[in-house]
Amino acid sequence: MTVVDEQLGRWNRAWALSPYPLLAVATVVCLLGDAAPGDRLVTVAVAAGLGVWHWWFVLAHPQWPEHRPWINAGYYAGVLALATVLMVRSDAFQLFVPACYVLAFVSLGGRLAYAGLVAANLPGLVASGFDPDSALISLGVATPAAALFGAMIRTMEREAVRRREINRELLAVSAENARLAKQAGIAEERARMAREIHDTVAQGLTGIVTQLEAVGGVPGEARARLDAARTLARTSLDEVRRSIEALRPGPLQDARLSEAIEQTVKTWTRLYGIPARYTMTGEPVPVHSEVEVTLLRAAQETLSNVRRHASAGQAHVTLSYMEDVIVLDVHDDGRGLPSPPPSTGFGLTALRQRVAALSGSVSVESSPGAGTAVSVTVPLIGAGS
């Protein structure tokens, strides 16, 4: 639970408990009056009934004010009825009128709370015999002041809730970015190691094999040793190439880029229950491992954002091999982004940085309620480059 949640919980409990002090003070003032003992006992019983009524509906079931509005309208009507009985029996319970104002906002939602504020004057008016002076003070002064105060409190609560949601969103984005950054760091280090092995050991072994195959006219035992050396060099070169392959990202270990992205889409659909289609256009060609890793991570990250932010019913992923570029398009039918789309957030910064390292580009097209389309374009760099 966050600090904001704790503060909201304390405030809500404080408002829910606020009628009890006023009810207790009014009861004590009533008991100090000159009423008959029997009348006092009946008044205390009604006051106790009002306390139990409030406890059952608001304190014992704190979820009801939000999820059962009509039940709470009945609860508030019961409060006003009991308060009317108490005020008719003793003027001391006029002290409870402010509590009725508070309970209108505690138990009633939206504009109904303001109707409840007006209704909160009924017990006092009934007790006073609908005195015009009392009605003017209650309806013309007290009720507008209570409405203004209640509106201010609700505005503060909405702002607190908005900040809580923003904090949760920031925490989720931060955790996701940290996860993606960790994956990116691992992938980059593995790619660097693969390049180093390819450019040093693999190239050296290739040169050795070439030189050994160029040797001819060697008789007898020397020929056997050269054949053994050539076989050993070839075997070592095969091992090195397998090691380079093992350093590729997980989904790319046993598949090419298109198959890896298709498998990513299928896995994402299976895990999160959001239908997604995969389409490939053009003729697939072997590309550099950096290009494969970048496009695979772009697909994973963009689908992750669709799941977390878009509220989408479906998504469509397209991988297009063109003459000199490869384009990855991810489109969803979700709620879309504000116009213009933000340049930061939702992992876009990390994605742009990764793509920019290959001299590629990322574009985002979206509008509220019309879904989002993310297009990642990178140069088509061959596998042997």
Search tags:
385 residues, alpha+beta, Heat Shock Protein 90, five-stranded mixed beta sheet, 9% strand
Would you summarize the structure shown here?
This protein is of the alpha+beta class. It has helices at 3-17, 19-31, 37-59, 64-67, 69-89, 97-107, 112-119, 122-127, 132-214, 220-246, 257-272, 289-310, 348-356; strands spanning 276-281, 315-321, 325-332, 361-366, 372-379.
Can you walk me through this structure?
By secondary structure, the chain is an alpha+beta fold. It is 67% helix and 9% strand. Among the domains are: 3-130, no CATH class; 252-385, Histidine kinase-like ATPase, C-terminal domain (Heat Shock Protein 90), CATH 3.30.565.10. It has helices at 3-17, 19-31, 37-59, 64-67, 69-89, 97-107, 112-119, 122-127, 132-214, 220-246, 257-272, 289-310, 348-356; strands at 276-281, 315-321, 325-332, 361-366, 372-379. Strands 1-2-3-5-4 form a five-stranded mixed β-sheet, covered by helices on one side. Strand 4 (361-366) and strand 5 (372-379) form a beta hairpin. The model has no long low-confidence stretch (mean pLDDT 77).
